[in-house]
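Collaborator request, handled under Task 6.
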Amino acid sequence: MGFTRGFSLGEEVGWRDGYQLGLQRGAQIATELGFYQGFVHAWITVLEREEIAKQRKMVALKALLEMTKNFPQVNIADEDMFEKLHKIRAKFKQVVSILNINTQESELHPEGEPSSPRPEMSF
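C-alpha cells returned to the collaborator:
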C-alpha cells in the first residue's frame, strides 16, 4: 500500500511540475518568436523606402516571417518543434548578416539568448 500511494503521489507531483515547466518553456519560445516577428516587421518598413540591394534582404526577411508564422502553436507528436526553432534561429542569424548588423555592440538578441558569444572551451 505504501509503494502504490507513494508512486501515485510522485506521479501527481511530476505531472504538476511538468505542466509548469511546459508553460514556462512555451512562454519563452513565444517571446522569442514574437521578437523575430517584430524585428522583421520593423526592417521591412525600413527597407520599403530603400532602393539599393533591397531584393535579397526582403526575401530573407519574408522567409523568416513565414517560418515564425508556420511554427506550430500546439504540441504535435509528429513535428519536431525544436528542429523548427533551430532553423528559425539560423535564418535569423542569416538575416542579421545580410542586413550587416553588428550584434556584438547592440542589444539585438531575443530573450534567453546570450548577447555575447559563448566562450571557447579548451582542454
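The cover message to the collaborator said: "The helical segments are 2-47, 54-69, 81-98. The radius of gyration is 20 Å. Please let us know whether this matches your experimental observations."
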